[in-house]
Give the backbone structure.
Amino acid sequence: MVVRIKMVTAKGTLEKSCQVPRISAGPDVHEFILGSEGTLGVITEVTMKIKPLPECTKYGSFIFPDFEKGIKFMQEVSRRKVNPASIRLMDNGQLRFGLALKPEKGLIERFTDHIKQMYITRLRGFNPAKIALCTAVLRGN
C-alpha cells in the first residue's frame, strides 16, 4: 500500500500522504498519480507499507433476509473490532446485478444452486426481492 508519494511536475514538487487506515470513499490521488504513466509528472519517491503474506486466507459470504439486518451485522463486526482484510455488504439490487453477470452453469451446478435457493426461500423464509449479501476475506496466522 502506498503511504506517501513525491512527484516532480512542470509546476513544482507534489507530496501526498495517504490516509491510514485506508478508506474506500472517493477518488484516490495516489491512483491518479500511479495511473498517469508519467503524464502528470515523474515520481521521485514512494513510501510503501508492506506486510508478510498471511499463512491462511479464508473467504466467506453471509446472507441476510434484508439490507437492514446486514447493516446490523456490519455494525456488530465493527463493535467487536473484527478486522477482516475485506468486507462488503450488497443490497438486493447489487446482488441481482452480480448474479445476472455470472456465466452460464452446468446441470449439476444449476441443481445445487436450486437446492440452495429452496433452502433460503422456503425453509428460511427469505424474500428473494429483499435478500442482502455480505462477502468477507479473513487473513491471519
